[in-house]
Specification:
Radius of gyration of chain B: 26 Å
Strand content of chain A: 15-25%
Number of helices of chain A: 21
CATH topology of the largest domain in chain B: Rossmann fold
Number of helices of chain B: 10
Oligomer: heterodimer
CATH superfamily of the largest domain in chain B: L-asparaginase, N-terminal domain
Number of strands of chain A: 21
Radius of gyration of chain A: 31 Å
Largest interface: A-B, 51 and 56 residues
Distance between the termini of chain B: 49 Å
Number of domains of chain B: 3
Number of strands of chain B: 21
Strand content of chain B: 15-25%
Helix content of chain A: 25-40%
Distance between the termini of chain A: 69 Å
Chain lengths: ~625, ~450
């Protein structure tokens, strides 16, 4: 479906989280994450804290009641007692504060005068403390892109969360290495915009931050939260943790379509004269109805002492399966919601009988619920606690359907769609981090830092093009990649053509990644070593992709080993000449008929035999000479 | 809370110019723009030139008074919307356990509006915060003190001992005492002597991470303490705290052998020179020590709650000035526990002062600053000299336990001979004749 952003009142707000490249973590003296193997494991349970208002986030409560055990894996190399929540935080890292202030000043934002570290309650286990430490550094700025100016609302400094390694059964496993890494969070005001231009905004902001030279680069160091809403009964949907920039526009388009669909469903519900009172207040236990069921799914639940409940929906016939836009149905939304509570999905009246549930079962369910021809119902099954929480969540979600789009947190899928990840958290649960005193921002420091505002990224890009004779496309690619610093290092320490280095670090690596290889396993030193081999002539530049492939596949552990394996110790001119002579001998006829025109074909054949062991230009000049010789000798 | 709590000097003067108070939604006009938010209390000892507001987003920020041109009230502070917890759970046939609170906040509620943390102390509040408790025991609770543990002293030990005895004699099958962790070990030792022969378990418990955080160890420790108080087959005074970094196993330590050995870790408390008594995991108690008295419900507990305050714990160190001992004696000290070096030594230049003190009727005993291991004063000349002067060797007793025991001994004896006899007798498991090869026994 094509969307018309203006017509549907599409608004998009971005929150960009960028890791900083500080020497130490935010609240301790640990170095930044390493690849160190974890040697320590411990288990925690996070308990939802009660607020003065007596409220507890229901999703948090559910996870706690479910008894989710949180396992943390840590290494002494990059984690200490602070990450383990076994020691109070140290002083706020001033290098991180200064970096964020520089970014704030580049965005024309006003720094606050005194920094207050807050605790934002997060009890999914991603923070050992059960809260994320975060602070506002500056407010109200402007991000200028090519054709517009986007208001910046807040600029925060916060600690990164622990990385989820796996989740299975009642257990979540996190690595502590990333916890407490400083992040800058820039929150942009929601703007009416085409999806592509939002992507452009994110890219511009990323470049502005990279221009400081003080932020981390590479995959996973920048993440976007995309807040999407449409006019007419739409809440704001927060799509959290989009790592790939090129997904942003797809996600916005999908959300626009989904939300438009939900509004159509709402209109349809209202036009039938239905309202939220048509959703039953309580589910009805129908476990007994299914005691003898032929449905494998339900049988499994019953064997495990689970419950089956049904929810009566007055006048809902046809509404659960109604698909105003392909793929957008209320039934599907509801199924996503119950999955959060560990239930596989829902059975609803618009699709039954199916899944082994037969008409006979349904008659009895309808009887128990008092379902008439025009009504609908939903059946869910699972462990008692899950069913209890899930049916509350179903009732809430169905009530929201009459308003349109519920405000909720969704996650991106790899193909640019979104899926439900959490119910809406209550109002921001924040309270002061009393372990860290407020920290004033001295006026003198601001004056000092304003001198460090980096040149615009466009200027830096031009500098890059001029210095290394790169074309603008190549320069942008390397600027946006995670390898800018490494690129400068390699160009400074070898004589290899900068364009070759840039192409390797961007295009070659990207194409290897498309083959499913993980380039993050390459170290900076390894890449530098590779170009040193090229520089010395030990490896030809044509052999670089093959060597990288061996390294990424783990088939070789060093450049030298890969070169040896490929038999790539560079070929002597004599050996090349031998190959050329053989090829010319084999293709005498072609030379006779085409003369110098035979060059490109012969070059290809020679290179097949050389197999990257010699530099292409050298081969080419030797071959040209030999062809000329051959032509002359015939004359 | 006063109307401008925490503000002093210039910031207080500025706030007083406008009709605003803490909790009001205010608007602050500055030369760089307008800020709207809730006026917050000021962090203690912070400077006097910032005003703190909580923005709508929930963040606090400080605004320099030097750039403020106007402050106005947008809305008056809303009263606290505190919801009272549900009624006290109906009495059950579960064992009756009393939870006595002395301070620290084993359970608390957070007010996200003002950022305040309020302790949850009543039975209703405790059971609402840690609902697991009601499935373990018929809970009764009492707030005895609200003190930081560094402010607990022998007067409080006495009052606490009397309160515990009252509860036990009134039918509590076990008592849980919530306590700040810093001096928890001292109080555990004090109760061990004052409630010698206690027929049911009395379990002291604290937390190393405050209870307002989701990661607090408070609830896990409290649950294990309550399980022990309600169900343990043994009796006496114990401490329940985390066994390691995991929220999994809780160690039950003997009140006379436990020490806080780390400033911040959850497993800061360790049984020294002794294995733990038991472990609690998933609500089950695994007993490790065999020589713990059995539960003897129905036996009347006779408290002996007197402590002699004129007692000192002195740590010997290089350049230690023996005149310190003379000075203490001149101030009427009645007993000194020395923390000597190694097997129980002090520099021989101290011998004169020590002898003068003992001759003057002061009780002097020796422990080791090594903490782990026992004193053995017959090994070196210096130790033998001290023994001959009349210094009492205290074996493997912890210096803190020795200090508390001496206070109690001096408070409950009249003659020096009785005091010496009691100091060397094993009254409450403070001596261990065998020390395990492993420092810490792993959880079962």
């Amino acid at each position: 479906m094509n969307i018309e952003p203006e017509k549907i009142g599409l608004k998009v707000g971005l929150e960009v989280h960028q890791q900083l490249a500080t020497e130490k973590k935010l609240f301790c003296s640990c170095p930044m994450p390493s690849e160190a193997k974890p040697e320590l494991r411990f288990m925690r349970r996070l308990r939802p804290t009660q607020s003065e208002m007596g409220q507890i986030d229901p999703a948090a409560l559910f996870e706690f009641r479910r008894g989710t055990a949180i396992i943390y894996e840590a290494s002494d190399i990059d984690s200490c007692l602070v990450e383990a929540d076994e020691e109070p935080p140290h002083d706020l890292n001033q290098e991180a504060v200064q970096t964020v202030l520089i970014i704030a000043l580049s965005l024309g934002a006003t720094p606050v005068d005194e920094l207050h570290v807050m605790r934002k309650i997060v009890i999914d286990g991603s923070n050992t403390t059960g809260f994320q430490r975060t602070l506002v550094v500056a407010l109200n700025g402007q991000l200028k892109t090519k054709d517009r100016s986007v208001p910046v609302q807040t600029i925060c400094l916060e600690e990164d969360a622990a990385r989820l390694l796996e989740e299975k059964g009642g257990e979540k496993v996190f690595s502590l290495s990333r916890l407490c890494v400083p992040l800058v969070e820039v929150a942009l005001a929601p703007v009416a915009a085409e999806p592509e231009s939002v992507q452009e905004i994110a890219l511009t902001l990323g470049r502005l931050m990279r221009a400081t030279g003080r932020v981390a680069r590479g995959l996973g160091t920048i993440r976007q939260d995309v807040n999407v809403s449409v006019a007419g009964g739409g809440g704001v949907v927060e799509v959290k943790g989009v790592q790939r920039l090129d997904l942003i526009s797809k996600i916005i388009e999908y959300e626009a379509v989904r939300q438009t669909g939900l509004l159509k469903i709402k209109d349809s519900l209202l036009s039938r004269g239905l309202d939220s009172s048509c959703v039953a207040d309580n589910p009805v236990d129908v476990t007994e109805v299914f005691r003898e069921t032929s449905s494998n799914l339900l049988q499994k639940t019953l064997k495990e002492d689970g419950r089956v409940v049904a929810l009566f929906l007055k006048g809902f016939k046809g509404m659960l399966g109604y698909e105003p836009i392909p793929g957008i149905r209320l039934g599907r939304e509801l199924a996503e919601v119950v999955r959060f509570y560990g239930i596989g999905g829902i059975f609803h009246s618009d699709e039954l009988p199916a899944y082994g549930i037969i008409e006979n079962d349904l008659v009895r369910v309808k009887e128990k619920l008092g379902v008439r021809e025009e009504d609908g119902f939903i059946i869910i099954a699972g462990p008692e606690a899950s069913v209890e929480y899930a049916s509350r969540a179903l009732i809430d979600r169905l009530t929201e359907a009459f308003k349109g789009v519920p405000s909720e947190t969704r996650g991106p899928t790899p193909d640019g769609k979104t899926k439900f990840s959490r119910p809406r958290p209550g109002a921001a649960r924040m309270y002061p981090e009393t372990d860290i005193p407020p920290c004033p921002v001295p006026k003198g420091l601001l004056q000092e830092l304003s001198k460090q505002i980096p040149p615009q990224w466009e200027e830096q890009l031009q500098g890059l093009m001029d210095k290394h004779r790169l074309n603008s496309k190549m320069a942008l690619q390397i600027y946006d990649s995670g390898y800018m610093d490494l690129f400068e290092k390699i160009t400074a320490s070898t004589r290899v053509q900068p364009s070759v280095i840039a192409a390797t670090l961007t295009e070659t690596l990207v194409s290897l990644e498309r083959q499913g290889l993980d380039s993050s396993t390459l170290t900076d030193d390894g890449l530098l070593d590779l170009f040193k081999h090229v520089d010395s002539g030990a490896v030809s530049k044509e052999a670089v992709p093959q060597i990288l492939e061996l390294l990424l596949k783990g088939e070789s552990r060093s450049v030298q080993e890969a070169a040896n394996k490929l038999g790539l110790s560079a070929m002597s001119d004599d050996a090349v000449v031998q190959i050329i002579s053989r090829v010319i001998e084999e293709n005498k006829g072609m030379i006779a008929s085409k003369g110098e025109g035979a060059f490109s074909l012969l070059m290809g054949r020679v290179m097949v035999s050389v197999r990257g062991k010699a530099d292409g230009q050298r081969v080419s000049s030797l071959l040209k000479a030999k062809i000329a010789e051959a032509i002359r000798s015939r004359v | 809370m006063t109307e401008t709590e925490g503000y002093v000097g210039r910031s207080l003067a500025l706030l007083q110019k406008y009709p605003v108070k803490i909790g009001d939604l205010i608007s602050i006009t500055t030369r760089q723009g307008v800020y709207e938010g809730t006026l917050m209390t000021r962090y203690g000892y912070a400077d006097d030139h910032h005003i703190v507001i909580k923005l709508r987003s929930g963040y606090n920020v400080g605004i320099s008074i030097d750039r403020i041109t106007d402050i106005s009230r947008v809305a008056e502070a809303a009263g606290p919307k505190y919801v009272t917890p549900p009624n006290r759970p109906a009495p059950t046939d579960l064992p009756k356990v009393t939870i006595i609170s002395t301070g620290g906040t084993i359970a608390s509620r957070v007010d996200y509006r003002t950022g305040g943390v309020r302790p949850a102390l009543s039975v209703e509040e405790l059971c609402a915060s840690v609902p697991e408790l009601t499935a373990i025991a018929d809970i009764d609770s009492e707030v005895l003190f609200s003190l930081y543990s560094e402010n607990m002293a022998s007067d409080q030990w006495s009052a606490l001992a009397l309160k515990v005895a009252e509860k036990v004699n009134n039918g509590s099958k076990g008592v849980v005492v919530t306590h700040g962790t810093d001096t928890l070990g001292y109080t555990a030792a004090a109760l061990s002597f004052a409630l010698k022969g206690c027929p049911v378990p009395v379990v002291l418990v604290g937390s190393q991470r405050s209870s307002d955080r989701p990661s607090s160890d408070a609830a896990t420790n409290l649950i294990a303490a309550t399980v022990t108080a309600a169900n343990a087959v043994f009796s006496g005074i114990f401490v329940a705290m985390h066994h390691d970094l995991s929220d999994d196993t809780i160690s039950i330590h003997r009140g006379t052998k436990v020490r806080k050995n780390h400033t911040s870790r959850r497993d800061a408390f360790e049984s020294v020179n002794s294995p733990c008594v038991a472990f609690v995991k998933n609500g089950d108690i695994t007993v490790v020590s065999k020589d713990i008295p059995h539960r003897r419900e129905g036996v009347t507990l006779m408290p002996q709650p007197k402590f002699e305050k004129k007692t000192a714990l002195l740590k010997f160190h290089p350049d230690f000035d023996p005149e310190i001992i003379d000075h203490l004696v001149s101030r009427g000290i009645r007993g000194i526990v020395l923390e000597g070096t190694g097997l129980g030594q002090v520099a021989s230049r101290c011998n004169g002062a020590i002898k003068r003190a003992i001759d003057g009727g002061v009780l002097i005993a020796m422990t080791s600053q090594c903490i782990w291991g026992r004193v053995r004063m017959t090994v070196y000349d210096t130790g033998r000299d001290l023994l001959s002067i009349g210094v009492i060797p205290l074996g493997d007793m912890l210096p803190e336990t020795a200090f508390v025991k001496m206070m109690w001994v001096l408070g409950n004896t009249k003659s020096s001979n009785d005091s010496i006899r009691l100091m060397t007798e094993n009254l409450a498991g403070e001596y261990m004749s065998r020390r395990p090869l492993t420092r810490r026994k792993n959880a079962a």
